[in-house]
Amino acid sequence: MSLGQFFQREGSHWLRDEGPESDIVISSRVRIARNLSGRAFPMIASGEDQNALLDEIATVAEQSDVRALGPFTLLRMADVSVVDKQVLVEKHLISPSLAESNGGAGALLSPDGELSVLINEEDHLRLQCLVPGYQIDNAYGQVDRLDDAFEEVLDFAFDEEKGYLTACPTNVGTGMRASVMMHLPVLMATGQMNRILPAVTQVGLAVRGIYGEGSDALGNLFQISNQVTLGQSESEIIGNLHGVTRQIIEHERAARQRLLAERRDQLEDRVCRSFGILAYARQIDTKEAMQRLSDVRLGIDLGIIKGVSASILKELMVAIQPGFLQKYYSQEMDPDERDGRRAALIRERLRTDGIAQS
Amino acid sequence: MMCQQCGQRPANVHFTEIVQGQKSEYHLCEVCAREKGQAAYQAIAGAFSINQLLSGLLNFDPSVKMRVNTPSAQCDECGLTFNQFAQLGRFGCPHCYEAFAEGLSPLLRKIQSSEQHVGKVPRRRGGAITAKRELTRLREEMRQRIAEERFEEAAQLRDRIRILERESSQA
Ligand SMILES: [Zn+2]
Ligand SMILES: [Zn+2]
């Protein structure tokens, strides 16, 4: 299989497809950290040891149990160019810290990019599954099976009291971080988020905005994830995440319908105005772009804008996040240049969809 | 933007945290972010990971800091000292958990919901651990039944505990 597909802008399953409840839930992700017993963690492991682990994992990936869940392609970070690494980060296939690490860092990637294994990042292995929409059980199921397949042949560092041992004690226990990314424009606009949040934090979850240059919750995107990894089982953690996610979905949907019923004209004006700006702007900053994209996405979900693919807008919401954009282009770009590139990127995407003429 | 704490250095750590419904925004320089460890804890656990923040938490918390100077606190497998752990926020090897158990305890109580893992167990080691957990659960249940004066049920539980104990001592 060619490596080229991983570097193309399109093609990751979570960006391409929508998935269940995709009017609210953008993506679901589960990641578990695993380490091999009796070996130094990557932070202090020698380059030799790191490469040995990489070779070992490459062999394990060819075993039938593991292969059946892929097949996986091994990328050795040492062989991947800086630009290509940035593309992989932008597509959420690898983490920024894996891209920055030297030596024996690597990744196993499944063909559709759903399942991946980061090797020699903070932990020896980070198994992750990223799927579109609200599919947290599916994501955990895939990661869990991959974990079992690895465990057949690898001895993981595990302690009866502390659970799976990880480089950072914030991950010890299950080693699991489960999260959903949600688009909550109307709960934000009507100030209802504040009523919902206390329930979230009481069950060991955290809500975070997708933040950037001095703004909170850019594009009304929120990530809900578990904080606790020790003292709660995987199913408890995921159960709590479900409970909260479902409540929020219902609240946002109800709020959208109320808005549509009571203030349709203003809503349509706002949505269409934002679409016009995205289609024709020559300079746009992150904050405005995220807000306009959020408006347009809401318009698509409510049937106000037709013929625009929602997935393209999802992809844009991710691709223009300040960190991603800055990494993708050069760090030296001044703000005006950045705003110009961002506007061009958005116009180009809308044009590819055959909607806007600019 | 300058750091909102000291106003001296550019703010390059930005995050929004929402704790118990209270939203706070932080725009800090790295130095102040480290000092803000406690508040910043919310950010480390997720996608927005900053290496320095855990060390901020460690240095911030006097009950942990006190133990940093314990001379014996060094991992005899990887050589990491507790002091280094406090700076890096990362362990060097799995054995560090044993080596630094004492210093780690107050930290875990702060950031986790308990100190006992109750989740998945590696399949190949599963048997023994599962039996042990079942025993713990049964003993706890028996204590409760006795407290509730439901002695008949407690006696049944005691019999099951005995069978399980016999089985696991033979294994
Ligand atoms: Zn400062
Ligand atoms: Zn160690």
Blueprint (SSEs and pairs):
The complex is a heterodimer of chains A (358) and B (171).
Chain A: H1 4-7, H2 13-16, E1 25-34, H3 47-61, H4 64-67, E2 73-76, H5 82-90, H6 96-100, E3 106-109, E4 115-119, E5 125-132, H7 136-151, E6 158-159, E7 163-164, E8 176-183, H8 185-189, H9 193-202, E9 205-209, E10 221-226, H10 234-262, H11 264-280, H12 286-301, H13 310-319, H14 322-328, H15 335-352
Antiparallel strand pairs in A: 1-5, 1-8, 2-3, 3-4, 4-5, 6-7, 8-10, 9-10
Helix pairs in contact in A: 5-14, 11-12, 12-13
Chain B: E1 13-19, E2 22-28, H1 30-35, H2 37-44, H3 51-60, H4 62-68, H5 82-88, H6 96-99, H7 101-111, H8 126-147, H9 151-170
Antiparallel strand pairs in B: 1-2
Bound molecules: zinc ion (ZN) (2 copies).
Number of E-state strands of chain A: 10
Strand count, sense and closure of the main sheet of chain A? Answer: 8 strands, antiparallel
Number of strands of chain B: 2
Q: Kindly provide the radius of gyration of chain B, computed on alpha-carbon positions and rounded to a whole number of angstroms.
A: 23 Å
List keywords for this structure.
heterodimer, A: 358 residues, alpha+beta, Creatine Kinase, Chain A, domain 2, 2 domains, 8-stranded antiparallel beta sheet, 10 strands, globular, B: 171 residues, mainly alpha, two-stranded antiparallel sheet, 9 helices, 56% helix, binds zinc ion
Structure description:
The complex is a heterodimer of chains A (358) and B (171). Chain A has 358 residues and is an alpha+beta fold. Chain A folds into two domains: 3-255, Glutamine synthetase/guanido kinase, catalytic domain (Creatine Kinase, Chain A, domain 2, 2-Layer Sandwich), CATH 3.30.590; 264-352. Chain A is built from 15 helices and ten strands. Chain A has helices at 4-7, 13-16, 47-61, 64-67, 82-90, 96-100, 136-151, 185-189, 193-202, 234-262, 264-280, 286-301, 310-319, 322-328, 335-352; strands at residues 25-34, 73-76, 106-109, 115-119, 125-132, 158-159, 163-164, 176-183, 205-209, 221-226. Chain B is elongated, with a radius of gyration of 23 Å. Chain B contains nine helices and two strands. The chains are: A alpha+beta (358), B mainly alpha (171). Chains A and B meet through helix 7, strand 6, strand 7, strand 8 and helix 9 of A and strand 1, strand 2, helix 2 and helix 7 of B. The structure holds zinc ion (2 copies).
